[in-house]
């Protein structure tokens, strides 16, 4: 038979008149993600549509809108942006949707499926991007609550983004005040125990994420998500080196710092973790960053597998219908990996159940109460009674089988059942109705069988006669008797005396406890600026024994000295309360980057990224380094300095300039030798020029002049000497015309007068004549 795949009813639909649904991208436990087109802005978006049962919850729409607005205020390159939110009605069904930026690519879960585990360098690079997004969210007051590989997107362009901010809080608020939302494999202990989520909850999930990136395995596994969650609350996350021997100790410390069961022992938020993470990445060697184990890690040798655990028992108030086989990890569980399932709210009654393994999915759990399991007893003689195996059984209406005691303690016959509650249980928590017969009941019957005349029962005598129950004894006690027994009165007196003694002891113990004992109030001493041992001694003197320490970097307090305490000094606390002592590690040191060979602009950018500042800048000539390049730095590369320290730079001005010697008028060989001696290169111009003043073969001109860089070419122009010009014939010309003609030909003129002055004004003679060098003086005689 050919099965035709049903088309998604939203494909092709238009949500809110704006978003045209094209295709389904993914489907989870809380929502379905579609690829859609925003018709208004003509762009592709990711449309997350929550399941109808969430949208139908009273008040959910308001909470969902509030969380969406909070997430939309967070704009960061490491966070998937929230663009729009709303509720529409399609086909008569409410559709609550969230519009996010579309990030084509894959999730971090896909990367883990492909590679199994990642080398430390790649794992820390990915974690850096995740923590950077969390740091921005924590600074804005947002907590993710569901950090896992499925919510980390890797775009085709290499960008890393975190998705689903605020969705977990909206769903958690919808399912009830005692529930939590998260993926069991990444849940922090405080969320498992029903405490409020804080920034440290995201840090714990991030630490588990790093463990999985490094080893390819989650730290805890179990038959069902509840088992895994309880392991997070009861066990410490192992160091990754347990599965990867030889892994750098710094990475082990980072994972265990993030996954401490006490939130106070973790980084306070994403910003604190980001600073430490980047410091560790700088201190690790290339061998440690590229570490690869000899064999693939096997978690089976290092993890305890739980098969049964104490889980909260559901109250019979009508909500039991919500508990399906899928909720308890039964055969009907078919949630895909990374999906969200809703489990019913847990009550405070506990029952022991065997739960099954489920897929790695985001779930809504009832808060797990920190109460011990009900003590078990051997099975009763009859397993069909109302008390089988020591566990009371109830009908669907919530009453005890075989009992009909009302709220005032009267049964169906109107007889007052003293010592029984409204469910028919006595003061010891045992059901004495029909069908009892467990060993615990047996012990309660020994003292009453004789007074009623019933034969005692016991396995040793082989008797099958059942004695009257305490219910029957109570009825018989109200019937008329011939004699009165004094044993009951005497027993009451003894019980009263014991009770008074116990109350006096409790009062004395309480007085000691809240006075000189651990419950007494003391003023927390000021232990700042003293060594840790001295601080411990001062706190011990006050009777404060519960201490935790944390080492942090501090710019002002010397290493090993106490910075302060939490609570602060002079606070009034009780001696049993934990005091957090903060110890200084001194100023945080960072490695100076290598700046040689770069420019002043690139050096300033690198120093700023590494937490340093640009110091003084000195310029000097360098024969081998071009101008503008850094030739020296102080301190040198690799030196460790405090954040904000200045790094001095020496910038090259290039080769030192030299003065060009003046060789004008010198013969060619002498001029060339003088130029080369100055470190310059002499080049002769092919075109020599005439000169009236410079003889032929001498330097007529040079270029450039002044100061130039060493090795610069100096062009020398040689002289061809004066030009030869024919002297014009000016005989018998008037004096004026003769002088003008000679000067126009390039000669100078000297006039002599025959009679001491001009009489006729005509040239009577000239000398020299013929071809003469330009500029020669021509003498003319005027009559």
From TrEMBL:
UniProt keyword terms in alphabetical order: ATP-binding, Kinase, Membrane, Nucleotide-binding, Serine/threonine-protein kinase, Transferase, Transmembrane, Transmembrane helix
Xref: CDD domains: PASTA_pknB (cd06577), STKc_PknB_like (cd14014)
Gene3D superfamilies: 3.30.10.20, Phosphorylase Kinase, domain 1 (3.30.200.20), Transferase(Phosphotransferase) domain 1 (1.10.510.10)
EC numbers, comma separated: 2.7.11.1
Signal peptide (from-to): none
Region (Disordered) location: 297-345, 372-486
Annotated TM spans: 495-515
Compositional bias annotation for Basic and acidic residues: 314-329
Domain PASTA: 520-585, 586-653, 654-720
Protein name as it appears in the record: non-specific serine/threonine protein kinase
Biased composition (Acidic residues): 405-434
Residue ranges occupied by any Protein kinase domain in the UniProt entry: 19-282
Species this chain originates from: Arthrobacter burdickii
InterPro entries with a match to the protein in the record: Kinase-like_dom_sf, PASTA_dom, Prot_kinase_dom, Ser/Thr_kinase_AS
Keyword Ligase: no
Enzyme category, top tier: transferase
Catalysed transformations (reactions): L-seryl-[protein] + ATP = O-phospho-L-seryl-[protein] + ADP + H(+); L-threonyl-[protein] + ATP = O-phospho-L-threonyl-[protein] + ADP + H(+)
């Amino acid at each position: 038979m050919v099965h035709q795949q049903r088309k998604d009813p939203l494909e092709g639909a238009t949500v809110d008149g704006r978003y045209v649904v094209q295709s389904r991208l993914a489907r989870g436990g809380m929502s379905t993600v579609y690829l859609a087109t925003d018709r208004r802005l003509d762009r592709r978006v990711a449309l997350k549509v929550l399941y109808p049962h969430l949208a139908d919850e009273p008040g959910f729409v308001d909470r969902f809108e509030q969380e969406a607005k909070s997430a939309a205020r967070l704009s960061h390159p490491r966070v998937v942006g929230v663009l729009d939110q709303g509720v529409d009605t399609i086909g008569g069904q409410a559709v609550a949707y969230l519009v996010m930026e579309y990030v084509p690519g894959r999730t971090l879960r896909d990367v883990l499926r492909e590679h199994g585990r990642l080398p430390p360098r790649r794992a820390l690079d990915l974690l850096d991007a995740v923590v950077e997004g969390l740091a921005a969210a924590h600074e804005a007051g947002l907590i993710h609550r569901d950090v896992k590989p499925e919510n980390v997107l890797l775009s085709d362009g290499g960008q890393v983004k975190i998705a689903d901010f605020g969705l977990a809080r909206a769903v958690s608020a919808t399912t009830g005040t005692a529930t939590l939302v998260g993926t069991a494999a990444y849940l922090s202990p405080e969320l498992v125990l029903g405490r409020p989520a804080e920034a440290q909850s995201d840090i714990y999930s991030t630490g588990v994420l790093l463990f999985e990136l490094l080893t390819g395995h989650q730290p805890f596994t179990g038959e069902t998500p509840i088992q895994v969650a309880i392991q997070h609350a009861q066990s410490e996350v192992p160091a990754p080196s347990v599965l990867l021997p030889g892994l750098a100790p710094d990475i082990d410390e980072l994972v265990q710092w993030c996954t401490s069961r006490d939130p106070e022992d973790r980084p306070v938020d994403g910003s604190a973790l980001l600073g430490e993470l980047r410091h560790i990445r700088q201190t690790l060697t290339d061998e440690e960053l590229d570490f690869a184990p000899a064999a693939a890690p096997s978690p089976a040798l290092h993890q305890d597998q739980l098969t049964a655990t104490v889980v909260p028992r559901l109250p019979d108030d009508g909500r039991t219908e919500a508990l399906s086989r899928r909720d308890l990890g039964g055969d009907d569980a078919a949630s895909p990996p990374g999906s969200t399932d809703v489990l019913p709210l847990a009550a405070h009654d506990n029952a022991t159940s065997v739960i099954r393994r489920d897929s790695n999915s985001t779930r809504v759990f009832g808060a797990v109460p920190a109460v011990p399991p009900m003590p078990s007893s051997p099975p009763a003689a009859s397993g069909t009674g109302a008390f089988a195996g020591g566990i009371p059984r109830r009908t669907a209406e919530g009453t005890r089988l075989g009992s009909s005691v009302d709220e005032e303690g009267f049964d169906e016959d109107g007889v007052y059942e003293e010592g029984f509650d409204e469910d028919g249980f006595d003061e010891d928590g045992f059901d004495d109705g029909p069908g009892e017969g467990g060993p615990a009941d047996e012990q309660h019957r020994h003292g009453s069988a004789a007074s009623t005349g019933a034969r005692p029962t016991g396995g040793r005598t082989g008797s099958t006669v059942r004695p009257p129950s305490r219910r029957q004894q109570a009825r018989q006690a109200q019937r008329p008797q011939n004699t009165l027994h004094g044993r009951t009165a005497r027993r009451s007196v003894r019980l009263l005396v014991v009770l008074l003694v116990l109350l006096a002891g409790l009062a004395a113990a309480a007085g000691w406890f809240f006075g000189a004992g651990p419950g007494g109030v003391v003023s927390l001493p000021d232990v700042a600026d003293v060594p840790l041992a001295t601080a411990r001694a001062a706190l011990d003197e006050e009777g404060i024994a519960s201490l935790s320490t944390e080492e942090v970097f501090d710019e002002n307090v010397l290493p090993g000295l106490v910075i302060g305490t939490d609570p602060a000094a002079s606070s009034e606390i009780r001696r049993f309360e934990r005091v957090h002592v903060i110890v200084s590690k001194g100023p945080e040191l960072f490695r100076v980057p290598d700046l040689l060979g770069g420019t002043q602009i690139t050096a300033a950018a690198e120093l700023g990224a590494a937490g340093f500042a640009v110091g003084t800048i000195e310029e000097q000539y360098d024969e081998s380094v071009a101008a503008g390049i850094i030739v020296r730095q102080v301190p040198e590369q690799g030196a460790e300095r405090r954040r904000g320290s200045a790094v001095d730079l020496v910038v090259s001005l290039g080769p030192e300039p030299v003065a060009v010697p003046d060789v004008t008028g010198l013969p060619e060989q002498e001029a060339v030798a003088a130029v080369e001696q100055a470190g310059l290169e002499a080049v002769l111009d092919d075109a020599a020029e005439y000169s009236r003043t410079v003889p032929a073969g001498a330097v007529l001109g040079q270029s450039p002049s002044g100061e130039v860089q060493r090795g610069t070419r100096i062009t020398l122009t040689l002289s061809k000497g004066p030009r030869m010009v024919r002297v014009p014939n000016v005989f018998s010309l008037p004096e004026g015309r003769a002088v003008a003609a000679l000067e126009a030909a390039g000669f100078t003129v000297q006039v002599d007068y025959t009679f001491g002055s001009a009489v006729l004004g005509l040239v009577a003679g000239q000398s020299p004549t013929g071809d003469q060098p330009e500029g020669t003086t021509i003498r003319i005689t005027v009559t």
